[in-house]
Amino acid sequence: MGLPGASITFENGNLGVVATSPDGLCGLISSAEAVSTTFELNKHYVIYSLKDAENLGITNSVANHALYKTIKEFYAECGNGTELWIYGVARTLTLDQIITASEQLLINSDRKIRAVMVKYSPSAADTAVASGIRTGFPATIAAAQGIADQYTTDNIHPVVYMIEGYNFTGVAQDLVGFTALTNNRVMVMIGDTETRTGTTASKGAAIGVLGGRFAKNQVHVNVGRVKDGALKPLEFYIVDTPVERYNVTALHDKGFVTLRTHVGKSGYYFTDDPMACTVEDDYHYLARRRTIDKAFVLANGTLTNYVLDDLDVTADGKISPIVANHIQSEVERVIAQEMTANGELSADANNPNDKGVQCEIDLNEVVATTSKIKGKIKVRPKGYARFIEFTIGYTINS
Fold first, then answer.
1. How does pLDDT run across 197-251, given as a tens digit for each residue?
2. Please, what's the largest Cα pairwise distance for the chain?
3. What distances in angstroms separate CA 161 from CA 43, 98, 100, one per listed residue?
4. Are 164 and 119 within 8 A, CB to CB?
5. pTM of the prediction?
């Protein structure tokens, strides 16, 4: 039977698509080297600036270059004062072992972290490649998805993973992509601020930039939104090729997060915010994932207030419509207050009663017998202008 409690499951397929805000709190788990007694491995630290990291002894050394660089780029993007949880692990760990170790970071955060950045910088070269990327990569992202799903379901702790497209060969055609996968809590980035053949020989990606943009955005905002301005780094590369000279469309079409430029705009932007799953998935995009996750947390917190509450029922044991209406209204009120009022859900401006959220309780459930209240919660997401098509011509007819 289990303990009494509230339970919400995610619906899918409904869209028909062929202080630091707690919504943006990031954690970073990284290959690292301990620094005397100031920075220990397998221990979390909470920082608010690059200076805080430097005070821990994390500097731009050979062993900690990747960690330092990621923190530096994170704060360049989102600004000092942003809370970041960091967790260093031995550089002897494989990428898959780092994913496993990230569970401890989530446990330590007490449900706070919403995104885990994974930075991989092994002490021994990892050169194995399959289908254009690190060998075993599909299993790696599936493991991250498994952890994220578990924490969401068991701990009401929705989280996403940001992983580097490690060892990408530079040949987009070699990549399999994610069109047949279901990892809607994992995003994979290709593109770095350093070249493959440079001094540091980057094999990963600038996930600190991605995490920084995540941290400062509201849940409904796409990380590639142009009106938010260009990303802070002035140079981005795909392996050794400057982004503007690489066919990033090929990477985008495979489902990877990568970089681009826009005609008439200076600087670099993210191409989009896809997760490593099929495009038909309602949560294929990060903004969709984050929006529903916030509604999920708010709904759970509200519905938990009714656990083991005594409810009036009708003569046939069904929940009283008055009671049901009260619960529905409370769920809608909380979500509308925390999300719709902040522009994170869509509401019809022509309908003053539209809140962008609907809660419906099943009035046919015999609560007196089953001890269950069943229902559905629907939120209306934002639309996104991925393709803008206009015509232009003269107004004079001859």
1. 978 889 999 999 999 999 999 999 999 999 999 999 999 999 999 999 999 999 9
2. 82
3. 19, 12, 12
4. yes
5. 0.93
